[in-house]
Structures are given as C-alpha cells and as structure tokens.
C-alpha cells in the first residue's frame, strides 16, 4: 500500500510503500501528528535557493526597524549571497559554511553611518 500525507499544498503523492495497510495507517497518523504539532518539514523546502529564501525571510519580518533591514540586506547582498545565493538550502552543509567563514574574517564590513 502507498501512503501520502495531507499538507498545506493539497497533499503529497504516495511515495512511500508499506507491506500492510496498518503500517501505512500508522505512518500516516504520525505524519498528521507532526503537521498538527508544527513539527513537519516539507521535504521540498530544501530545494529553495538561499537567495530567494533570504529575501523572503527579511520581507516576513515587518517589525524590524528600517536601519536593521538595511543592515541585513547589505550583509546578505555583499557577504552571503555571492557565496551561497544560487545554492539550495538542502545543499548548504556545515563544512561549506566553515570553509566560507575564514574568507569573511577580517573583511566583514558593515555600511558606515553616512551610507
């Protein structure tokens, strides 16, 4: 038996198979519980490029002060996006970030107050 899970996008195709119907029902019950508890993570979410995610993340924070938004946009555009902008979220691993960090040490400059 194949099982899919209900989600905000109308459901997912049954990509998991089980030897028995009861196994599928148990799996589906667990997925439904994850969704209800807010613990479910959409496996397609990792396919989003960091450039798109970063801009959306900033736009979804309406309570940030204008100065903070300017700073975040500057840092993102000048330091993060050049290295990770075209990379999908799922492909950003700790080793890649660690190798990038030394490159930024000593040159992570923020805009001056006059900018």
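Q: What amino acid sequence fits the structure above?
A:
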């Amino acid at each position: 038996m194949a099982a899919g899970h209900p989600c905000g996008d109308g459901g997912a195709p049954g990509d998991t198979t089980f030897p028995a119907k009861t196994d599928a029902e148990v799996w589906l019950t667990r997925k439904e519980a994850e969704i209800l508890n807010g613990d479910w993570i959409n496996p397609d979410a990792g396919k989003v490029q960091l450039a798109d995610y970063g801009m959306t993340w900033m736009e979804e924070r309406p309570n940030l002060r204008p100065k903070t938004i300017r700073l975040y946009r500057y840092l993102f555009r000048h330091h993060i996006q050049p290295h990770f902008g075209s990379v999908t979220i799922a492909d950003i691993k700790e080793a890649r970030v660690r190798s990038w960090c030394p490159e930024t040490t000593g040159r992570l400059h923020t805009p001056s107050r006059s900018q």
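Q: And what stands out in the fold?
A: The chain has four helices and two strands.
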